[in-house]
Amino acid sequence: MGLQISERLIDGINRHVEEAYPEEGAGFLLGAAGEVREILALANAREDEARHNRFLFTPEDYLKAELKADELGLSLIGVFHSHPDCPNVPSEYDREWAQPFFSYIITRVDQGKAVSQRSWRLTEDRSRYDEEEIEIS
User: Are 42 and 26 in contact (CB under 8 A)?
Assistant: First the structure.
């Protein structure tokens, strides 16, 4: 099963993570049945010295995302974030904080420019990620 997303939303993700560079940028994926229909870009709440390789959502961020999804008749289906100047493969930290059934789009940002996206899903037993195809329309 792949993740469907429009070119417009990919462009929105790219803008957000490029603006966040050299820190990680992040946000939520809103949609239904494996289709991203909207994104919610958020500020990185991690402490200053860790933002270059970590992101954090606050409880208020989750609430904002849930309310936005409800308003649009959608669900939270995943998270996007960037890996500045390193591969867009989930880290052990990413795995520890991830939730099964969410899609995780990781954008590689090299020297301030988004260069590629990959999407991942955590297995139900939380032991590893499986890569999922991104279908851009």
Answer: yes
Q: How far apart are CA 73 and CA 129, in angstroms?
A: 28
| pLDDT at residue 1, as a whole number | 67
Cα–Cα dist 122/126, whole Å: 6
Domains in the chain (CATH in brackets) are: 3-136 (3.40.140.10)
Tokens 């990185």 correspond to what residue? 44
Q: What pLDDT does 44 receive?
A: 83
Helices (H) and strands (E) in the chain, counts: 3, 8
Q: Let me know: does 17 contact 51? Beta carbons within 8 Å.
A: no
pTM of the model: 0.94
Output the 3-class SS for 2-25: CEEECHHHHHHHHHHHHHHCCCCC
